[in-house]
TrEMBL record:
Its EC number is 5.1.3.6. The keyword NAD applies. It catalyses: UDP-alpha-D-glucuronate = UDP-alpha-D-galacturonate. This is UDP-glucuronate 4-epimerase. GO terms for molecular function: UDP-glucuronate 4-epimerase activity. Homodimer. It is an enzyme of class 5 (isomerase). It is found in: Golgi apparatus, Golgi stack membrane. Belongs to the NAD(P)-dependent epimerase/dehydratase family. The keyword Zinc does not apply. It is a multi-pass membrane protein.
Amino acid sequence: SEWEKRVKSSSKIRSKSGFSVLVTGAAGFVGTHVSAALHHRGDGVLGLDNFNDYYDITLKRARQDLLQKSGIYILEGDINDAVLVKKLFEVVHFTHVMHLAAQAGVRYAMKNPKSYVHSNIDGFVNLLEICKSAEPQPAIVWASSSSVYGLNTKVPFSETDRTDQPASLYAATKKSGEEIAHAYNHIYGLSLTGLRFFTVYGPWGRPDMAYFLFTKNILKGKAIRVYESGDHGTVSRDFTYIDDIVKGCLGALDTAEKSTGSSGKKKGDAQFRVFNLGNTSPVSVSDLVSILEKLLKVKAKRRVMKLPRNGDVQFTHANISLAQRAFGYKPTTDLQTGLKKFVRWYEGYYGLRKKSHH
Ligand code: NAD
């Protein structure tokens, strides 16, 4: 069928690595960049995304267009659709799964708690069930989150720090994902690597995130709410540029060992890893706004407030030495440089760049 042809051609491997990767959440922010990078180096890539309306679908469609123009196919479907996902594994023998599909955002959980359980827990389990029975069993790299550190106040955050105090339902489902993954690794010998991303930003970013909302409202002359402090001092984030995150994702994929399967071999042999992927230099939200003011050449109307208990934690700060040792992860983009690239993209995408008169 036409469908199978497109799936197969998109998954065609052109590199020596021999990787064929299923990317879930491929029309998402991180998924778009990771898919493009994998395709660019010659790996076979098939995208899967349900195009939900958590944020502007036009932006997801634009990312899809961008990828499809370079020959990457993004199938519209849900990770909970067992029939569809099983069929994909029959048509393509994926060597790897890059699982990025999720219900993201911490505040939206107050409005729609079930969407978090649906995508981040049920959907993940559905995917793992299919991977465990797939032949060959793919190695899986998936997105966890820095939010698992919750109320932890010991900085920088190391992978061995406590993660038993989530501050949001989003964090709770991401933490559950890590425990579910561990169980699948232990019982079925699936190779699993979790990546705890720290506040990722950049071109094609997510419109629900603070840096994006600030840019939009500063340009419109609208007031912005800046949560400067909380119970424990300044509110800050370890903002990490998308290209650095992509390098980390590829590093994790490249060093992922094969799944061992549960038959014959000693159980628990396969790899289970969890890594922080951050920038290691947190910036206060207040300084983030100042950088944006300079780049946009507009003064923000700041409404300075104290952080309420809305799911946001007060600060994040990654210790990245584990990822550095495992696959040479080393972020190279500071916030100023990265935001400049974001702003350029934003102005271009929304047609705001000043046209020359000639
Ligand atoms: P995103 O929302 O842009 O991308 C997620 C994509 O998954 C979306 O396109 C969405 O349509 C799709 N999706 C959601 N539920 C699905 C389902 N049930 N079936 C199929 N597709 C589904 O978010 P992002 O910023 O690109 O995040 C990617 C991953 O990284 C997520 O797992 C997120 O939780 C995690 N993460 C992101 C950040 C960040 O700062 N961006 C930080 C920590 C963790």
